[in-house]
Amino acid sequence: MRSRFLVLLAVMVAGIVACSRSESHYRNVIDAAEAVMLTDKDSALSMLEAVEPTELTHDSLRAKYHYLRAWGHLGRQMSMISDSLISFAYDYYQGRDLVRAVRSGTAKAWYKFWVGDTPGAIALFDSLIGRQNVPDSLLVQALRARVLLGASEYQGEELIPLAKRLLSIESDSLRQMEARYMLVGAFENAGEMDSALVMCDELIDDARIHRRGDKQFYFELEKAQILSELGRNSESDSVVDRIFLYSAPDNGAADYLHMLYAMNALNTGNTGRASREIAMADSFATIFRNEDDVYYKSYSNLLHTMIDFKENGRMRLAHVNGLNNRQRERFNRMEASQWESERGALVQQRRALELKAESQRKTVIILIIAIISVLLLAGAALIIRQRRQRELENEERAEALQKMVDELESASCAQPSDEKTPALRRAMLQQLGIIKMVAETPTEQNREMLRKISSIEGETNGELVNWKNVYELIDNLYSNFYSKLHEKYGDVLSSREEQIIVLLTAGFSTKEISVISGQATSTVYVRKSSIRKKLGVPEKEDIAIFLRSELSH
User: Fold this and answer.
1) In this predicted model, what pLDDT tens digit does every residue of 360-413 receive, in sequence order?
2) Do 8 and 42 form a contact (C-beta atoms < 8 A)?
C-alpha cells in the first residue's frame, strides 16, 4: 500500500511540474531565442511567445526577455506599441552590458517613435551615438535610425554631419548608397542644393556602373527635382526626358514625372503646358493609384490651385478645400494606422492574459485535485493502519485472554463448575464479547480477525468461530447449559439450531446470530420457529429463558 501511495504521489508531482513552467525552463528558451535572433528573428520571436513574462522573477531574465522581444520587432519592422517594458531592459543594462545597453536603447527609441514621441526618439538616439569609446559597428544601427528619423523631420544642417558619419562607417555598398542618398536629403533641407546635386550625380554614376537601374531611376528623379528647385527648369526637363527615354511612358512614376513637367512649366510662366501636364499626371495617378494616393493629391491639388490662379487671377475654394481635406485625410490615416497598431497590441496582450489565466486555472485545478488525492490517500492509509493496529491488538488480547482462561481453568480444575473464580468468569465473558463485537460490526476486516482468533485453538472449517470453544464458554458461563441441551435434545435439534439456541442464551440478536453462524437472517427466523415447535416453546415465551428454566430442573 505504501509503495502504491508513493508512486501515485510521484505521478501527481510530475504532473504539477509539467503544467507549471519553471524559471529555469524559461531561461533556456530565452537563451535559445537570443542565439538565433541575429540570423532568424521570426524563429526567435516564436520561441519568446512560449514565455509568460509575469512568471519571470529575476530582473536579469526579465530584462533579457523584453530586450530580445523589442529587438526582434525592430528587426522585422513590426509594431512596437506593446514593447513599453523595453525601458526596464534599457535601465537594467546601463553599466552592466554595453552591447545590450546600446541595442535596447535603439529599440526604446523606436518604441518612442511608434507611440508618437519622435522628438523623444531623436533625443535618445543622439544620446546613444554620442557615447564615447563605443565601436562604430555597435552604433551603426542607432546612427542609421537617427538619420532616417531626421530626414522624416526635414532636418538639414544638424543632419549633415550625422549622415556623413554614417557614410564613413557603412561597409556594405548598398548601405553606403542609402547613406549618400540620405545625405542628399540633408543637403536639400539645409539649402545646400549645389552639394546635393553633386552627391546626386555621384549616386547616378555609381548606380549606372553597378547596373542598378531601379536606383538610377530614383536618383535621376531626385536630380530633376533638385534642378527644378535651383530654377534650372530646362535642365530638369531634360533629365525627365532622359528618364522617359530609357523607361516606358507609363512607368510607375509617370504621374510624378508629369507633375515635375507641370512645375517647371509653371515656373517659366507656361500655364497652358502646366495645365496639360498636370492633367496627364492625374490620369496616370488614376490608373496607378485608383485616386487613393493622399501623398500625390497633396501636391497635385496645390498645383491645380496655382495654375487656376495664374490662368484666371483668382483662387478656387474647391481646390483649397481639397488640399486641406487631403492633408486631413492623410493625418487621419496616420492616426488610424497608429490606433490599429495599438489595438493589435492590446489584442495580443489580452490573448496573453487569457492564456495566462487559463494556465493558472489548470494549475489550480491540478493542485486542488492533487491535495484532495493526497488527503484521501493519507486518510485511507490512516484508516488501514488503525484497523490493522486494532486487529493486532484484538489478536494479542484474544491470545492473552485464552492464555488467562487456560491458566485459570488449570488452577481451578478441582473446583465445581459453579465455583469458578471471578477472574476466570470475567475472562470468558471478554472472550465471548469479542465474538459479539464482530457480530455487531461485521466488516470483512473484523470477520478475518475473528477467524484468526478462533483458529488459535484449532481449525474452524471455514466458520467464523470454533464452535467447540464457544460451547465450552457457554457451559462455563451458564452452568453447563450446552451440555444439558445436547444431552436432552441432541436427537431432536440440528447443529445449526443448537448454535442459534447457544447464541440466544449469550444475548445475541437475530442479526448477530446470522453473522456468526453464517446463515441468512430469514433462515434464522425460520429455524427459531422450528425450535419452538420441536421443543414446545410457547409463542410469546423467550426461547433462551424457557430452555434455561427447563434444563435447570
Assistant:
1) 677 778 778 878 878 888 888 788 877 776 666 555 555 544 554 454 455 445
2) no
In the chain, the largest separation of any two C-alpha atoms, in whole Å, equals 156
Asked if 394 contacts 430 with a C-beta cutoff of 8 angstroms, the reply is no
Q: Outline where 153-270 has alpha helix (H).
A: 160-169, 173-189, 193-209, 213-229, 233-246, 254-267
Give the CATH fold of the 22-153 domain.
1.25.40
Supply the mean pLDDT for the chain.
Answer: 80
> What is the spatial distance between Cα 128 and Cα 407, in angstroms, rounded to a whole number?
103
Q: Which residues contact 341 (CB under 8 A, 6 or more apart)?
A: 79, 81, 114
User: CA–CA distance from 5 to each of 19, 374, 474 (Å)?
Assistant: 21, 9, 46
pLDDT per residue as tens digits for the range 240-267: 999 888 887 878 788 888 989 999 998 9
DSSP string of 371-409?
HHHHHHHHHHHHHHHHHHHHHHHHHHHHHHHHHHHHHHH
Crossing angle (nearest 10°) for helices 23-37 and 41-49: 170
Show Cβ contacts of residue 381 under 8 Å, excluding neighbours closer than 6 positions: 1, 2, 5
pLDDT at 420 over 60: no
Q: The CATH number of 479-553 is which of 1.10.3470.10, 3.40.1360.10, 1.10.10.10, 1.10.3720.10?
A: 1.10.10.10
3-class secondary structure, 352: helix
- The residue with cell 531626385 is 222
CA-wise closest residue to 102 among 113, 90, 112: 90
Q: What is the pTM of this model?
A: 0.57
* Residues 341, 329: Cα–Cα separation, whole Å: 18
Taking only the tens place, the pLDDT of each residue in 135-182 is 988 999 999 999 999 988 889 899 999 999 999 999 888 899 999 999
**Domain residues of the chain, as ranges?**
22-153, 248-349, 479-553
